[in-house]
Automatic annotation (TrEMBL):
It holds the Pfam family HI0933_like. SUPFAM superfamilies: FAD/NAD(P)-binding domain, HI0933 insert domain-like. InterPro entries: BaiN-like, FAD/NAD-bd_sf, RsdA/BaiN/AoA(So)-like_dom, RsdA/BaiN/AoA(So)_Rossmann. This is Aminoacetone oxidase family FAD-binding enzyme. PANTHER family: OS12G0638800 PROTEIN. Residues 3-352 form the RsdA/BaiN/AoA(So)-like Rossmann fold-like domain. Residues 179-259 form the RsdA/BaiN/AoA(So)-like insert domain.
Amino acid sequence: METIVIIGAGASGLACMNELVKTNKYNIIVLEQSNKAARKILASGNGRCNVSNLNMDIKYYNHQDPLIEKLIKEFDVVNFFKQLSLKLRYEKNLVYPYSLSSLSAKNALMKNMDNVSYIDNCEVLAIKKAKTYEIITTNGHYQADKIVIATGSPASHLSGQNNLKMLEKMHISMIPFTPSLVQVKTNPVFKVLKGQRVKGIAMLYDQNQLIEKQTGEIMFTDYGLSGICIMQLSRYLDHLKNPKLILNLLPDIEKEEFQHYGLEGFFHEKIVQIFKEKNIDPRCLEFKIIDTMSIEKAQVCHGGVSLKEVDENLQLKKYPGIYVCGEALDVDGDCGGYNLHFAFASGVHVAKSIKK
Ligand SMILES: Cc1cc2nc3c(=O)[nH]c(=O)nc-3n(C[C@H](O)[C@H](O)[C@H](O)COP(=O)(O)OP(=O)(O)OC[C@H]3O[C@@H](n4cnc5c(N)ncnc54)[C@H](O)[C@@H]3O)c2cc1C
């Protein structure tokens, strides 16, 4: 019987495990560095776990790669969870467990854990190629015929910080992890408005050129700005020289209407006070972006194993029998279920490749 070791009991590793256990052909071992599986799943979607998006398109990901496009389009998230007896529901295009609880998603993904050997508190440090593969961990050595690297990224630190350490000495090209979907530090900062939420359009500029705009919620913080549309725009910051944000907090209000109601007619009194004090026009509020917050605050990371290193089975070209899925690969997407969708889709794809 072949031994398959899955490294990482998160979204992609558990998806892979659930597909592999359908046949009784393998001895499956899941190694997890922390004492809890699926920590990011539990934290996802503010505890509601936004598992996917009905509007699935490669344009919401960082690479317009044909293989990734095929994977995300072919994966049927409803059927995947149906097989795990979890009913899903939709809020506009966002897909959630029917219970709106991330715990339901975790429990469904963990259903088949009794059919595998699960070892937690076991961080994988290195992999050595011998006749089979030898896996060196903080908790002993393991032999594997095939290995699935499903270790995620260091975003939020909920999945550890040594996600790809085991590949360091294996001459695999990796894009360094940097924060994506993250809050931004700005100038000016409105500390007294910390926690205040507004709705509007946020436009990201670099050297006076519009890079991207997003409509939605914006939150003032004591370091700068947060909120879903700011996090979405943070994905474009990597290569910008002089990024700035312009907010229009009254995009649907005519000039006459604004004059009639005044600031008080639209905003919380704290906001009114600051805007008056600083003579700020809410239709054109400008912020220089100084930096992003750290990886620890990010929901997702750019970076990971370069797509050039894997074949169409997501198998390392240099190491046949080692597969990579989920955020450990250099694939990341927008807010709205795109990252979990890719984690599940790629985990299942790897399992199907192994079973071929
Ligand atoms: C706060 C928050 C909210 C989010 N909300 C959403 C959302 O609503 N929708 C969405 O689509 N995405 C969301 N995401 C992103 C999503 O959770 C991740 O993209 C997804 O979990 C990635 O799956 P993965 O399997 O690649 O990695 P993970 O789910 O992070 O799993 C990796 C696993 O590997 C383990 N591991 C790491 N290194 C080692 C090692 N060396 N040895 C052994 N084990 C190791 C980790 O402990 C972890 O259990 C959110 C992320 C955060 C942080």
